[in-house]
Amino acid sequence: MFQHVFAEMNHMLEEIVKHYPTAQETQKQILIQRWNMLKAMSDGIIEEWLSFEDKMSSFREHTVLPPMFPLGDTPEMGMESFVRGQGYFKLLMYRQSIQQFSQIVYDYPDSLLARMYIAMAHLHLEETSEALEHFQWILPLAEHKKLKAMIYNALGCIQAKLADTGKAQEYFTLSLQNDPTLPDPLINLQVCNQNRGQLQYGSQLISLI
Description:
The protein has about 210 residues and is mainly alpha-helical. The chain has a domain at about 140-209: Alpha Horseshoe (Serine Threonine Protein Phosphatase 5, Tetratricopeptide repeat). It contains 9 helices and no strands. The chain has helices spanning about 5-20, 25-60, 80-90, 95-105, 110-125, 130-140, 145-160, 165-180, 185-195. The longest helix is centred in the first third of the chain and has 38 residues, at about 25-60. InterPro entries: TPR-like_helical_dom_sf, TPR_rpt.
């Protein structure tokens, strides 16, 4: 639900970056005021969201919620870095999310969930090599079909971005075989077949917990 807000904020920022170098002094002051407004909005959204995530985490710690699938012993989910990393991911602030989850991987190198967030964040940043490295590390260790489906779908998106449509379709098919209820690979198959549209990935990541 935040996409339209961030789209507008990004548009305003792009306009500032575009016009500031050649603007007259008066216009520069106006652009600076707009930048300050965007900065205040960004800081406010982040603080409110992190506060919200803290409350969500507190509720989760004291409530037995049925997970989408068993993740086993995941003490890293109680870390502040996890809460912040997930919050940044939801806010589409992928670089900051990677920084937070990288701290978790340092302490818990076998954390599949932290690595999934890192991989998806890299993919959203169009850093396909980094994303591929993490997905290939996770895949042999993934036991649950929903997790495998998400990884295969992401691998398909990487191949589609590399213009290997045939390989992409193979991965999307594997994704559907592991979890026919996952909507992303079906959409992505249509994108490949019609050669238009936007690839979908990571939409179910939050549901893993």
